[in-house]
Amino acid sequence: MADKRLKDKIAVVTGGASGIGKATAIRFAQHGAAVYILDLTPENLAETKQEIESIGGTAAVIQCDVSNPGLVEESINRIGGENGRIDVIFANAGINGTMAPIETLEMDDWDQTIHTNLRSTFATVKYAIPYMKENGGSMIITSSINGNRVFSNIGASAYSTSKAGQTAFMKMAALELAQYAIRVNAVCPGSIDTNIGKNTYKSEELEEVQIPVEFPDGNHPLEQAPGKPEQVANLVLFLASDESFHVTGTEIFVDGAESLLRG
Ligand code: NAD
Question: Pairing state of beta strands 58-63 and 137-142?
Answer without folding.
Answer: unpaired
